[in-house]
Amino acid sequence: MTKEWKGIMTFTEQRFGRIEEVSLELLGGARKLAEKSGGDVSTLLIGRDVKNLARELIAYGADKVFIVEHPLLTYYQSDIYARIFADIVQKQKPNIVLVGATSIGMDLAPRVAAKLRTGLSAHVVKLEIGDDGLLRQIVPGFGGNVMAVVTCPEKRPQMATVRPGVLKKLKKDELRKGEIIELEVKVGEEELKARTLEMRIEPPPELPIEKAEIVVAGGWGICDKECFNMLKELAKLLGGAVGGTRPVLDEDLIKEDQMIGQSGKTIAPKVYIGFGISGEMHHVVGILDADTIIAVNIDPKAPIFDFVDYGVVGDAKEILPRLIKKLKEKLEKKRG
Q: How far, in Å, are 149, 235, 283 from residue 244 at the CA level?
């Protein structure tokens, strides 16, 4: 039964006519997987007047772009999107289906998996094809303390939601050839159990951590306002962004989109500097792709030191003001 399922399909999430970055990352990851699993890479694009985005998806790795357009599909509607997605998967029979682990993707993917009666791994941080040809889906388990490998040997497709920042998008190739397939799908008002009247996007007040080359993060060890203000000052001097762990979020020192880790964001900056962070796996999975990891912690046995390139044993409350002072002195010299 599983032999008739071939290739890889991704879901392209677009908002206001712009492709979400994670969708391009999925295409890059799908191409890498396809090198071993075989088959083509296709993607599904749903919305209103979205055909103009198809060429960009081909340039980033898609062999086929399936397009469903309708005025009622302007905004994401879970019931309609799930029904359309499941119907197309059932007809095209991709062996693997990948969806971004965004607010939309995490709502859509389980609905589609349920309709297809297949399994779904959520918040995947790594994908690979095993020697048995199965998709190995690596996810943090048991509170982030272990990395579990999940496979789906019987049902098809093999489905996963993948965290933004985990996979790498390909270099854009405007000369890539691909096929654009427009599908006719019936969509009726009666399917709309809820209607979206308007969507507004609030721009982030600071540099998003997933786009920053330098990220300065704080944890439980500096979980007070005075310390965190110093952390923000350091990040500003370095031209970086501020992130943190769950305790810091709970203390309202950062916003949800600044949290790093299993239930936050996965980042890959050139430099990550963590202050007062113990290094539990549910945070570490979000920083493993950083080029250079630096940690400051008062506990020499802190787990974070197992993952760093450079570690400093010391009190962040004493080290932060010294770093800030030195950086200011250097900047003053440059200006002078």
A: 27, 12, 9
